[in-house]
Amino acid sequence: MKIVEDSPPILTALDRPNSYIGRSVPRPNMARLMQGRAQYVSDVVLPRMAHVAFVRSPHAHARIESIDAAAARKAPGVIAVVTGPELAKVITPWVGVLTHLKGLKSAPQNAIAVDRACWAGEAVCAVVARSRAEAEDGCGLVEVEYEELQAVTDPETALDPKTPVIHPSIADNLCFERVHTAGDPDKGFAEADAVVETTFLFGRHTGVCNEPRAIVADWNPGDARLTVYQGTQAPHMMQNLFAKHLNLEEHQIRVVTKDVGGSFGIKVHTYADEMATVALSKLLKRPVKFVADRIESFVTDIHARDHRVKAKIGVKSDGTITAWEIDDLTGIGPYSVYPRTSGIEANQVVNLTGGPYTCGNYRARARVVFQNKNVMCQYRAVGHPIATAVTEGLIELAAAKIGMDPLEIRRRNLIADDAHPSQGPSGIKFEALSHHSSLAHLDSMMNYAGLRAEQEKLRKQGIYRGIGFASFVEVTNPSAAFYGVGGARISAQDGATVRLDGTGAIFCHTGVSEQGQGAEAVIAQCVATSFGVSMDRVRVIMGDTDNTPYGGGTWASRAAGIGGEAAWQAGKALRANVLAVAGSILQAKPETMDIRNGIVVDAATGAERIGLDEVARIAYFRPDTLPSGIQAELVATRHYVPRAWAFAFTNGIQASYLEVDTDSGFVKLLKHWCVEDCGTVINPQLVDEQVRGGVVQGIGAALFEHCLYDDRGQLLNGNMADYLVPMAVEMPDIEVGHVVTPTADSELGAKGAGEAGTAGAPGCVMNAINDALRPLGAAPLTDMPFTPDKILRALKRV
Amino acid sequence: MSEHRCDITLTVNGETVAETVDARKTLVDFLRDDLILTGSHVGCEHGVCGACTVRVDGDVVRGCLMLAAQCNGARVETIEGVSDGGEIADLQTAFEQRNALQCGFCTPGMLLTAQELLASGQVPSREKIREQISGNYCRCTGYHAIVDAIESVAQARAGHKP
Amino acid sequence: MKPSPFAYAKAKSLDHAIELLARPDGEARLLAGGQSLIATLNLRLSAPKLLIDLNGIGGLAGIAVKNDMVEIGAMTRHAEAERSADIARHAPLIALALPHIGHAAIRNRGTLGGSIAFADPAAELPACLLALGGEIDIVGPTGKRTVQADDFFKGLFETALGPRDVLTAIRLPAAANDTRVGFAEFSRRHGDYAMVGLAACAQVDGKGLGDVRLAYFGVGNVPLRAKKAETRLTEGSIDDAVKALASDLDPSGDVQATGATKLHLAGVLLRRVATQLMEVRS
Ligand SMILES: Cc1cc2nc3c(=O)[nH]c(=O)nc-3n(C[C@H](O)[C@H](O)[C@H](O)COP(=O)(O)OP(=O)(O)OC[C@H]3O[C@@H](n4cnc5c(N)ncnc54)[C@H](O)[C@@H]3O)c2cc1C
Ligand code: FES
Ligand code: FES
């Protein structure tokens, strides 16, 4: 059998008897998913439920002159036709700004466009009907008259005085600008023996979750409560936003998140059509369901990347990097997305560029401009793939220029493993990283020397293979510094409540949520270990704002590091509570006892004293037999938020080995490696699979995925036949290795791992392609995705 | 006779079902909306993602590219039936052990598609496995674990020792 | 998206299908494998009033070899042809092409007749039929007729089929001992429609190739013969044949590649396929 663990269990200070920390235990929720018994939002059916479909603007920018819904209202099955002005009476508009991104501005966005559509795909009218098919029939009968307006579609000219301003209410098309200088970049460049300057382009792409966005909103006027079934990554955040914009109290709203068919940052934002669905339920006093179809997903799910980065590096001939400079320009949609804003990705590019390296001479500018295209916002690994590809691309181009091996130049510049705490060129703070051990591990794991020899040999036969690398840092476990300080009500802390049931099993209610990453398993592993029961005695409750502690949810690689620590601490607290009761039953000192495998034991000898089922029985059914004054407290809650560090940075390095068919420009990926350090590894298999999935999303960006717009703002390939997602045949096997540097901020020491793969893969594949083509004198490729077309042009074959 | 509503009688997971359906209703929507068999998923409705994969008369097909009306007299099997019958229990165990699913949205289609290849009794190469699942989109796993799981089952079924 | 409303009728016979096609109240469409048609309905790219299902008609599927011709019934599924020993032996070009069509589940439903009738310019089978000099059987309101592949593909998604015609079978010359075939395509991902593809057939004649037929797909509105390149290849020069493509083909660009790239790739394919044609058969 090929089923092997890629990494041996890693022993840590967290070893309790029967510890699950560091073990690849299978996730408890998989059987349900494999048997077709999951419940995704798209599966939810409620009594009296109606379906909504939206009429969407065919124009990138247009004034809505009139809407004639008479025919649609009469169509079979149609319950209501609702326009923007009508819905605006129920739901208020929002503005996606954060105060800590200074100067960031945006315009109010409505659930349904009120007088102007600002991108092709924006909803201009809703049709509610008995079935989705009938709602679509109704949409076909709505007649909208538009006056087409000039569309702003080129970021390069968005700020020109000649270009129309998209929102008359704000002065120009500039959403956000950040300028940052550190050290002395001019001096650095002057000292360089070689300077490499180039422009990197990152195509717009999107998340393409296998399950499209879906929501069922159920306003019950009898209870004056709104229940929303939503495939969201952040239930409490959505609870707050629904309350705020529907003029309700938060406690009137329950957000329920069951199974989610993939998220990757797509399902953590406020979508106009989802807000409209909730408002329609309030208006119509009945459940309303919206499931985005794939075509509308392409024009409404947030897009990401779409950056143009002019970049420059200076190096000495001994490989020392002397300075960096970047100028990033990104064209977002017509609105900054609420509530996380569309300035974060550019901000992260400034933060992260040069991050793994010691050179602190750095000049950066990033500008974010409005466009009449679909909105852009945070998608898996926000900013990382861009910063990493720019940094690592520059380094390999510089290495080639001075004739140095690409691993050697990294060895000479990566922050030393023993130099921490340290900081990156932008001032980001690192608690502890392991760049050099990771590089050494990768070097031996991939047999670098052997591959170079093979590459050399094959070149003589006209076969062009390339090896590329990318070192990276990843932001995980964000504190309030990410959003909270900017005024967004997005919880940075997370909580866990652990409760003993009547048979000695436990329930753990957590604020983090599951979209397949394995959060449920990780929480169960943490609480089972710290409390002292086997995992099959733990039931994890998540994704329900009525029944979980207030929390942030699952994004920015926070679930394991933050939610896991809260669960760990809550398990410990409950253990203490249970031992207090057991102590009074047994007339023993609680400190002398422990809970192991569901039994209270003598800590020193391991001798069994009393089963948890018996403790529960006495506490719940015969409390009269406990000594007077003893009240059993068999529920414990703990919260956690990182305090010492704004972010727990992780690090790692990837390598790609590939072959370019120089006749056709096709790239064949032969193998991919990733070594990463996410601190304490709670479940090695889950980390490995996060990395693998992330790598493939990064490969998608490097080779395939691109939202192609024409200059009128029309998306040309908004379907799954033309927008190319990575499929099985073209993807390589991916080897994953680990180095472990725990964070001291938490007892668990776990950092996040969800985005490392996506952060490094695009730059790494780019470097491998350029490595393959270097002997042929091809101009370096820096324009993602690297299609056969572009490769052939670089080779001057077309 | 041509109809906007069609009477159909078919077996679904071995049970006889008689329903009247809209002519325009696809098989996967019929299974999901009318029979509440929600294990078959809808990811694109244009034949590319494979989330809607079901078996009709023994062959895997796209549930979004067949009409329910076409299934009069057919034998339809979905992930629910194939799971309950135990036919793919070993494959499901391998998926679980190998963490070959994350969100699980692609998984029912992936399992049925893999089973079609495995049913041939051969031990396919990793390339052949990747080819067989080339029409099943998975955004989460990166495919490696899925290929591992299918490969391990092929070997186990052929009597190879792990 | 869900399809617009339509009525559904299961044709009991060919005549019944043709009769149903004649309904006056609007557009009727034949439903074969549905792998293209239902996708376009789901996208509301077309909204016929009636679908006429060919799946219940007896005698429309099957593969037979007679009089040195391979006859393939219109409703023969791609998967069935892929498994057929007759196809492997007598129609090796088709056998080479089939695995490139979509994916297993698509091939389980899609039909050869549907692929030819739909005539997607980037599809494999229309080009194969053209390369082989095959012919197409059509039954319409006025009876039966046969059209040569060279005359069948008229324009973008436009064929010699009239609005009331049914394609019933395709026929192609069975491969002889001296027949050589070659096939290659470039698609971005396995199973995607091709960016550019080439299906070729030739007869070995002495030491060279005779009767070379090169049919490209993905480079125009219809599958295209590269006639000048055919001549050059017959004359024995691959280089000249590749050069001749510039006058044979004038591909326009699409979301995957520019016209220039497509033309370049057509040349790369020609070198690869020419090598296949010249391989000595064991
Ligand atoms: C994801 C995906 C990938 C695909 N990849 C490829 C590929 O790489 N290469 C490729 O060639 N195809 C590909 N296809 C298309 C597939 O091969 C189709 O099955 C084929 O093109 C049409 O055959 P069908 O039997 O499904 O026809 P249908 O979809 O039923 O019909 C197509 C059209 O032909 C007409 N028609 C069908 N049969 C007849 C007949 N007997 N007489 C007259 N008119 C008729 C119909 O009225 C309709 O207009 C792909 C499809 C999908 C969904
Ligand atoms: S839903 Fe059928 S293939 Fe995507
Ligand atoms: S597991 Fe999420 S799509 Fe495959």
Give the N-to-C terminal Cα separation of chain C. 52 Å
CATH topology of the largest domain in chain B: Ubiquitin-like (UB roll)
- Give helix and strand order of chain B, one letter per element, not per position: EEHEEEHHHHH
Helix content of chain B: 25-40%
Supply the number of structural domains of chain B.
2
Any idea what the radius of gyration of chain C is? 19 Å
Q: Per CATH, which architecture of the largest domain in chain B?
A: Roll
CATH architecture of the largest domain in chain C: 2-Layer Sandwich
Largest interface: A-B, 62 and 68 residues
Nearest-angstrom radius of gyration of chain B? 16 Å
Could you name the CATH class of the largest domain in chain B?
Answer: Alpha Beta
Averaged pLDDT of chain C: 96
Question: Top keywords for this entry?
Answer:
heterotrimer, A: 798 residues, alpha+beta, Aldehyde Oxidoreductase, domain 4, Aldehyde Oxidoreductase, domain 3, 3 domains, 7-stranded mixed β-sheet, 19 helices, 24% strand, globular, disordered N terminus, B: alpha+beta, DNA polymerase, domain 1, 2 domains, 5-stranded mixed β-sheet, 5 strands, 35% helix, binds flavin-adenine dinucleotide, binds FE2/S2 (inorganic) cluster
What does this structure look like?
- The complex is a heterotrimer of chains A (798), B (162) and C (282).
- Chain A is an alpha+beta fold and 798 residues long.
- Chain A has 3 domains: 185 residues, Aldehyde oxidase/xanthine dehydrogenase, molybdopterin binding domain (Aldehyde Oxidoreductase, domain 4, 2-Layer Sandwich), CATH 3.30.365.10; 193 residues, Aldehyde Oxidoreductase, domain 3, CATH 3.90.1170.50; 329 residues, Aldehyde oxidase/xanthine dehydrogenase, molybdopterin binding domain (Aldehyde Oxidoreductase, domain 4, 2-Layer Sandwich), CATH 3.30.365.
- Helices cover 27% and strands 24% of the residues of chain A.
- Chain A has 19 helices and 29 strands.
- In chain A, the strands form 7 sheets. A 7-stranded mixed sheet of chain A has the order 3-5-1-12-9-10-11, sandwiched between helices. Chain A has a 6-stranded mixed sheet with strand order 7-15-14-13-8-29.
- In chain A, a hairpin with a 5-residue loop joins strand 13 and strand 14.
- In chain A, helix 10 packs parallel to helix 18 and helix 17 crosses helix 18.
- The longest helix of chain A has 28 residues.
- The N terminus of chain A is likely disordered.
- Chain B is an alpha+beta fold.
- Chain B has 2 domains: 78 residues, Beta-grasp domain (Ubiquitin-like (UB roll), Roll), CATH 3.10.20.30; 72 residues, Orthogonal Bundle (DNA polymerase, domain 1), CATH 1.10.150.120.
- A 5-stranded mixed sheet of chain B has the order 2-1-5-3-4.
- In chain B, strand 1 and strand 2 form a beta hairpin.
- In chain B, helix 3 crosses helix 6.
- The model of chain B has no long low-confidence stretch (mean pLDDT 96).
- With 282 residues, chain C is of the alpha+beta class.
- In chain C, helix 10 runs antiparallel to helix 11 and helix 11 runs antiparallel to helix 12.
- The longest helix of chain C is centred in the last third of the chain and has 20 residues.
- Chains in contact: A-B, A-C, B-C.
- The interface between A and B is large, with 62 and 68 residues.
- Bound molecules: flavin-adenine dinucleotide and FE2/S2 (inorganic) cluster (2 copies).
